[in-house]
Amino acid sequence: MTLRALAPRFALCLALAAWVAGGAVARGGEEGETPTKAGFAYVPPGTFWMGSADADPGAEDWEKPRRPVTLSRPFFIAAREVTQGEWANAMGEYRGQARGEDYPAEGISWDDAQAFLERLNGMEGNGTYRLPTEAEWERAARAGTDSVYFCGDDSRALGRYAWLKDNAGGVSHPVGLKEPNPWGLYDVLGNVWEWTADYFGDFYPDNAETDPKGPESGWGRVTRGGSWLNDARFLRSAARAGTGQGERRDGVGLRLVFEP
Ligand SMILES: [Ca+2]
Predict the structure, then answer these.
(1) What are the pLDDT digits (tens) for 33-50?
(2) pTM here?
(3) Please, what are the domains in the chain?
(4) If you average pLDDT over residues 23-32, what whole number do you get?
(5) C-alpha 234 to ligand 1 mean position (Å)
(6) What's the 127 CA to ligand 1 centre distance in angstroms?
(7) How far is the CA of 20 from the centre of ligand 1 (A)?
(8) Are 30 and 40 spatial neighbours (Cβ–Cβ below 8 Å)?
(9) Is the pLDDT confidence value at 237 over 50?
């Protein structure tokens, strides 16, 4: 299955376009101590440039305008995509193209992801698992970088960090085999697209934002990061696609955020 548009006017847009069970959360009671959660990366509050710079020749209109976004609260984001084993543990069935415990769950709709989160939150008592907002995803993916990819502007560097069309051989791969980004996220670019909580909008607002949650409504939800199906341009840190929230597509999975 290929990425395709839900609505004709977005056809071009789309054509182009563990958890660790029982992991304890240290709350960082000592000043300067960074909280930890096993299997998750801690993302501190801060401001970053979200979206594509005009200088990026691969940038699309719906990745602009680039503007400063502040995330006022820290959060934890999973170091790895949700695996098929984790999905099956919560949902009682495997979901994915290349079946195996350590492969990413994929072919999952946004609605399916909500059911998974509900199940997961019912299984574990402390804290809440949810999808990242689009801004949280991009901040974590950029990991302090302003380049096209977290590994620079040249897509030829991606092979060390990402599974994409050029090197994936037409299948997804077990999570965590490539090198992580600077904040410890594996496969944040490539392997499978990752659902975010936000509705897809045509453009970003033309102003700085704090804790943005995307448009109030929309025809689909935002997926990020590109997949084993895609060329490098879809793996740019600012690249985004919209997908109907009921659609189950190859190459689309998820990554968890955890709030203590
Ligand atoms: Ca990914």
Answers:
(1) 788 999 999 999 999 999
(2) 0.88
(3) 3-18+38-259 (3.90.1580.10)
(4) 43
(5) 11
(6) 24
(7) 18
(8) no
(9) yes
